[in-house]
Design brief:
alpha+beta; about 5% strand; four-stranded mixed beta sheet
């Protein structure tokens, strides 16, 4: 059986979170860059593995395919608890971790599906613009709620305890509504993001995935 985990992803997307998690586990893994929006052999392979055509898509050493980043995080935590991707079983922090992990994936992530590609859902340009604007405003409200949950003492989302929630913060602070908005409205999340990117084992990875990101807007 192959020992390597294979991550199909797109730089700067949610696959960055799983790439960072894999890096922290120390498990052997490889990365395949896929432009999920561009027709071609790479996208065809992605669609065979994940009919939704989404990244990240993770191929396990036994060739089983996983989708959904939250599920990948929980699996990797089970296999490499030393990476501290989640609080241990029985921890008083575990319910809080699970709540906000699912909040990010179930509530915030869908806003990117609708606001960032409105042409997929409505044909008229004025309607596309209205949809994008309304969903972006809704995303901002969700991010404010997330930031309020991270306002406790300590350097990380869970206070003194690092977790994969910090990896999500690090990636999302590169996405719309932009780092300037985070600086003004959610400085705690931006501080967490910068601290994650400064970790020696993650610094090069985040630079590679976000090297085309524009400065603060």
């Amino acid at each position: 059986m192959r020992e390597t985990y294979i991550l199909l992803g797109t730089r700067g997307c949610g696959s960055t979170i799983v790439a960072a998690a894999l890096e922290l586990t120390g498990l052997p893994w490889g990365y395949e860059e896929v432009d999920y929006a561009l027709d071609g052999p790479e996208r065809d392979r992605l669609l065979e593995l994940n009919p939704l055509g989404q990244v990240p898509t993770l191929i396990l050493p036994n060739d089983e395919v996983m989708t959904e980043s939250a599920a990948m995080i929980l699996l990797l935590h089970d296999r490499a608890p030393h990476a501290e991707l989640a609080p241990p079983s029985g921890s008083a922090l575990l319910p809080r971790f699970l709540r906000w992990l699912m909040f990010i994936n179930a509530e915030i992530y869908p806003t990117f599906t609708y606001a960032d590609h409105p042409q997929r859902w409505v044909p008229e340009i004025p309607a596309q613009e209205r949809l994008a604007d309304e969903v972006l405003r809704y995303r901002q409200r969700l991010l404010l709620q997330l930031a309020a949950a991270a306002s406790g003492a300590g350097p990380w989302f869970l206070g003194k305890t690092f977790s994969a929630l910090d990896l999500y913060a690090a990636a999302m602070c590169h996405w719309r509504p932009g780092r300037r908005w985070f600086l003004q409205h959610c400085p705690k999340l931006l501080t967490i993001a910068e601290r994650v990117e400064q970790r020696p084992e993650l610094n090069a990875l985040f630079q590679a995935h976000f090297d085309q990101v524009a400065p603060l807007e």
